């Protein structure tokens, strides 16, 4: 009887979390003015309207037939909205707004898909441990649906950040916490082992690339106490960092030169003053915010500073014991804010070694290519989620941003992007060479 009761509670909890995630995604689309939903703020991505349909198509394609034996009323939309675009490889998309369905038809698809799934999810016919085709329990598939949507809440924020301000309805951030003026220094991390990933028998949810857990030895090293700030990065720019060939590898130099890149994409210079583009405004460059740059730019800074980017295992070791409680003011994450806060603003958000701000306020680039852990097995229902990116062209990021859901701040979670993608809310810190 108790097992049955727990099963019902788990099903209700996961269904409730999915509903809450939907509300969050609906609210995010509402910040865009309706006449701008067919815009493409980032050239490498789909138009905004695609993502309105994509979130529902993903859930439908994941659950409808596999779990509930439901037949689609609009299979053409299931296919149209199934897949996004990876910014690596191929040319830029060339579609025009008229190539996409009318907004009213997309919204009808969203409502019909949700209604059909919810009728089954709330019927109580299947418990969370009921197995879908392929042997995976329903709870795993629901976790996938929830976290997929929460991931898009963040990646859509990157995209909407590039949308002109007049095309959005402004939203206010809560007051930023006060920041102490602390000198930047490096923290010594003693040699020890660190475990990456999740054990295969873990009761916690993880994506396929988080398995299987393994332990590595990490020699002693030093790491920056704080993320690199705008002010520190400005020193790199003023020292000619973007013009000095020695700080860039061949691919990064050719990319930077071909694109005419001379500063972070969130920055703009007018006369002798730098400004920062926030989600809903443009403000004088805050010197104590973390800088957001591509991997190529972060690596160039590190070489200029006589340091390097940390490996994934170094980052994991330095982050040991970092608080991840979204209710304790322990960091800038879980959709609390749209924009960063000063890197010294949350004194209690530090690891056992005294390394600050490793949860939220900006992802952190590592020097580690996104590769599978030993024992990796792709999810059979989503084979391309990780495996399509094991190509030597993507780097691991750790930590989370202001727009990262709390559930994805688990130590095993791995994010990744290619080195020339500037739009992500990603900063970095350096280690001694």
Walk me through the structure.
With 433 residues, this protein is an alpha+beta fold. The protein has two domains: 166 residues, Four Helix Bundle (Hemerythrin (Met), subunit A) (Up-down Bundle); 247 residues, paralog of FGE (formylglycine-generating enzyme). Helices cover 32% and strands 12% of the residues. It has ten helices and 13 strands. Strands 11-10-9-12 form a four-stranded mixed β-sheet. It has a three-stranded antiparallel β-sheet with strand order 5-6-7, with no helix packed on it. It has a two-stranded antiparallel ribbon with strand order 1-4. Helix 2 packs parallel to helix 4. It is globular and about 60 Å long. The N terminus is likely disordered.
Observed structural traits:
paralog of FGE (formylglycine-generating enzyme), globular, 3-stranded antiparallel beta sheet, alpha+beta, 10 helices, disordered N terminus, 2 domains, Four Helix Bundle (Hemerythrin (Met), subunit A), 4-stranded mixed beta sheet
């Amino acid at each position: 009887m108790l097992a049955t009761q727990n099963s019902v509670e788990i099903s209700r909890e996961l269904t409730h979390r999915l509903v809450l995630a939907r509300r969050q995604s609906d609210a995010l689309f509402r910040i865009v003015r309706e006449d701008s939903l067919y815009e493409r703020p980032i050239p490498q991505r789909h138009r905004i309207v695609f993502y309105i349909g994509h979130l529902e198509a993903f859930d439908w394609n994941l659950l409808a037939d596999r779990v509930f034996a439901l037949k689609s009323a609009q299979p053409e939309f299931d296919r149209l909205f199934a897949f996004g675009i990876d910014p690596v490889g191929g040319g830029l998309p060339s579609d025009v707004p008229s190539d996409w369905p009318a907004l009213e038809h997309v919204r009808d698809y969203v409502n019909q898909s949700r209604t059909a799934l919810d009728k089954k999810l709330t019927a109580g016919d299947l418990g969370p441990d009921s197995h879908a085709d392929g042997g995976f329990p329903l709870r795993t598939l629901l976790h996938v649906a929830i976290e997929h949507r929460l991931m898009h809440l963040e990646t859509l924020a990157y995209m909407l950040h590039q949308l002109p301000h007049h095309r959005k309805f402004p939203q206010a951030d809560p007051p930023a916490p006060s920041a102490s003026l602390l000198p930047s220094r490096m923290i010594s991390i003693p040699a020890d082992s660190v475990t990456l990933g999740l054990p295969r028998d873990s009761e916690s949810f993880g994506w396929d690339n988080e398995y299987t857990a393994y332990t590595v030895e990490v020699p002693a090293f030093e790491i920056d106490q704080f993320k690199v700030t705008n002010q520190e990065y400005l020193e790199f720019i003023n020292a000619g960092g973007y013009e000095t060939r020695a700080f860039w590898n061949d691919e990064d130099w050719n990319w930077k030169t071909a694109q005419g890149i001379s500063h972070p994409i969130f920055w703009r210079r007018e006369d002798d003053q730098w400004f920062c583009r926030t989600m809903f405004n443009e403000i004088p460059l805050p010197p104590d915010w973390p800088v957001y740059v591509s991997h190529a730019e972060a690596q160039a800074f590190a070489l200029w500073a006589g340091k390097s980017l940390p490996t994934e295992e170094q980052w994991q070791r330095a982050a040991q014991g970092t608080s991840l409680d979204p209710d304790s003011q322990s960091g800038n994450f879980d959709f609390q804010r749209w924009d960063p806060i000063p890197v010294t603003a949350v004194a209690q958000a530090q690891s056992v070694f005294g390394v600050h701000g490793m949860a939220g306020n900006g992802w952190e680039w590592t020097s580690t290519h996104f590769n599978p852990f030993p024992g990796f097995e792709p999810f059979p229902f989503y084979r391309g989620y990780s495996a399509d990116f094991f190509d030597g062209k993507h780097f691991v990021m750790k930590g989370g941003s202001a727009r990262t859901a709390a559930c994805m701040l688990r130590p095993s979670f791995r994010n990744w992007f290619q080195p020339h993608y500037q739009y992500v809310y990603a900063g970095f810190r350096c280690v001694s060479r």
